[in-house]
C-alpha cells in the first residue's frame, strides 16, 4: 500500500497518450483521495464494475497490470501463405506490360477462384491496406526504357572520374541536374480546395504562346540557375551553361547531368574549363531529379492560371522558379539522389 499512497496518479495520467490508460489512472487518483468507487464511476462516467476492476488489478499487479493487453482478434480469413500468393499476384499485375489495372472487384474474384473465400467488397480494401497496398497514381515509362542501362548509369562515380580534370578529388565536384520545360497558355489544371460535393471550373486557355525555361539545380549547394527563352536552341544551352560555370566556386568543377536533346551536343561545354556533361540513358527522365521541380512549379505556382501574353508567361515562370529556389533546403531535399553523392 505504500506504493499506492506515494504514487502521483495525476502526473502519470497526464503523461499518457492512451485515453483508456488515462481513465484508469484518474480513477486510481480519485480512489487515493478517498472517493468511493460509486462516486468515481459517476464522475468519470464509467461503470462501477470497471472501477472495481482497475483498483483490484493495480493492487495485485501494479501499473503493468493496467496496460492494454494485446488483442488476438478474429483469425484472418485467408492464411499467411494465401496472402503471400495474393501479394505476388497484385505486384506482378502492377508491373505488367499488358496494361490495365486491378480493381477491388478483380481481387475479389481472384480470392474466390483461388481460395474459395468470399469477402464483403468493403473488406477487400481493408485487407489490401492491412497487407501494405495503397491505391496510388502510377508513373509512366517509355516502352524502350532499359532498367539495366539505368542501373549501370548509377555507377556514377566512375563516369564522373572519366569526365573531370585529374587533379580534382570527388569532394570538389558539384553535381547539377539540368533540363528544359515548356510553360504557356495551354496550361495545366490541378486540384483545389472547394466545398465538398462541388467541382469548380477553371479556365484553360486555347492560345499558343509559350516560353521555355532552361533550368539546373545543384542539390549539394541548394541552388539553381535558369534562363527563360522563346525557343530551345544550342545557343540558349550555352548561355545556360555559362550561368552554371559562373556560379561554380574556384577550385571546384560542375558535372551537369542532362538528357540527349538535339541541342545537348557534345561540344557545348568546350569553352568552360569548370563544366563537364554526362548524358542520361535514353528514355530515363526519372533519373533526372529536376523533373520534380517542373511538377512543383506547375502545382504550386502555375496551374489554373491565365496568361495574357508572352511577357506575362515569362514573368510568371521566373517568379515560380525563384519561389522554388528561395529555399535551399527544398532544393536539396527534393533533388538529391543517393547514387549521385560524390562523398559516400
- The ordered H/E elements are HHHHHHHHHHHEEEHEEHHH
Mean pLDDT: 87
Q: Spans of 5+ residues with little confidence (pLDDT < 50)?
A: none
Question: What percentage of residues falls in helices of 4 or more residues?
Answer: 40-55%
Mass-distribution shape: elongated
The percentage of residues in β strands lies in 5-15%
Helix tally equals 15
Assign the CATH superfamily of the largest domain.
Answer: Ribonuclease H-like superfamily/Ribonuclease H
Please report the first level of CATH classification, the CATH class of the largest domain: Alpha Beta
The CA-CA distance between the termini, in Å, is 59 Å
Q: What count of domains describes the coordinates?
A: 3
Query: Would you give the CATH topology of the largest domain?
Result: Nucleotidyltransferase, domain 5
Strand order of the largest sheet: 3-2-1-4-5
Structural class per helix/strand content?
A: alpha/beta
Number of strands: 5
Q: Indicate the CATH architecture of the largest domain.
A: 2-Layer Sandwich
Oligomeric nature of the chains: single chain
Q: Please outline the major beta sheet.
A: 5 strands, mixed
Question: Could you explain how this protein is built, in words?
Answer:
The chain is an alpha/beta fold. It has 3 domains: 2-66; 80-130, no CATH class; 147-340, Nucleotidyltransferase, domain 5 (2-Layer Sandwich), CATH 3.30.420.10. The protein is built from 15 helices and 5 strands. The chain has helices at residues 2-6, 9-14, 19-32, 37-44, 48-61, 63-66, 80-94, 104-115, 121-130, 147-153, 156-163, 234-247, 290-302, 310-325, 328-335; strands spanning 173-184, 210-218, 223-229, 253-258, 275-279.
Amino acid at each position: 500500500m505504500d506504493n499506492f499512497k506515494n504514487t502521483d496518479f495525476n502526473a502519470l495520467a497526464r503523461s499518457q497518450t492512451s485515453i483508456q490508460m488515462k481513465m484508469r489512472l484518474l480513477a486510481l487518483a480519485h480512489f487515493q483521495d478517498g472517493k468511493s468507487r460509486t462516486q468515481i464511476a459517476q464522475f468519470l462516467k464509467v461503470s462501477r464494475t470497471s472501477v472495481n476492476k482497475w483498483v483490484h488489478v493495480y493492487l495485485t499487479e501494479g501499473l503493468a497490470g493496467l496496460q492494454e493487453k494485446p488483442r488476438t482478434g478474429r483469425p484472418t480469413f485467408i492464411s499467411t501463405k494465401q496472402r503471400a500468393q495474393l501479394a505476388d499476384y497484385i505486384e506482378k499485375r502492377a508491373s505488367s506490360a499488358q496494361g490495365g489495372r486491378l480493381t477491388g472487384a478483380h481481387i475479389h474474384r481472384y480470392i474466390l477462384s483461388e481460395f474459395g473465400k468470399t469477402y464483403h467488397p468493403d473488406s477487400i480494401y481493408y485487407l489490401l491496406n492491412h497487407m501494405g497496398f495503397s491505391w496510388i497514381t502510377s508513373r509512366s515509362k517509355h516502352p524502350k526504357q532499359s532498367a539495366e542501362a539505368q542501373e549501370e548509369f548509377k555507377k556514377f562515380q566512375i563516369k564522373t572520374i572519366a569526365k573531370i580534370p585529374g587533379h580534382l578529388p570527388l569532394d570538389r565536384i558539384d553535381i547539377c541536374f539540368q533540363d528544359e520545360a515548356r510553360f504557356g497558355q495551354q496550361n495545366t489544371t490541378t486540384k483545389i480546395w472547394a466545398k465538398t460535393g462541388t467541382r469548380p471550373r477553371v479556365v484553360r486557355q486555347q492560345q499558343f504562346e509559350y516560353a521555355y525555361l532552361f533550368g539546373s539545380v545543384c542539390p549539394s549547394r541548394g541552388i539553381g540557375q535558369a534562363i527563360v527563352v522563346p525557343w530551345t536552341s544550342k545557343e540558349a544551352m550555352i548561355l545556360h551553361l555559362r550561368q552554371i560555370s559562373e556560379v561554380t566556386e574556384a577550385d571546384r568543377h560542375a558535372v551537369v547531368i542532362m538528357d540527349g536533346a538535339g541541342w545537348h551536343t557534345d561540344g557545348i561545354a568546350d569553352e568552360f574549363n569548370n563544366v563537364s556533361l554526362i548524358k542520361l540513358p535514353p528514355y530515363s527522365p526519372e533519373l533526372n531529379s529536376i523533373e520534380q521541380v517542373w511538377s512543383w512549379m506547375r502545382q504550386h505556382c502555375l496551374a489554373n492560371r491565365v496568361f495574357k501574353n508572352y511577357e506575362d508567361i515569362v514573368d510568371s515562370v521566373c517568379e515560380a522558379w525563384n519561389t522554388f529556389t528561395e529555399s535551399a533546403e527544398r532544393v536539396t531535399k527534393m533533388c538529391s539522389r543517393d547514387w549521385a553523392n560524390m562523398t559516400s
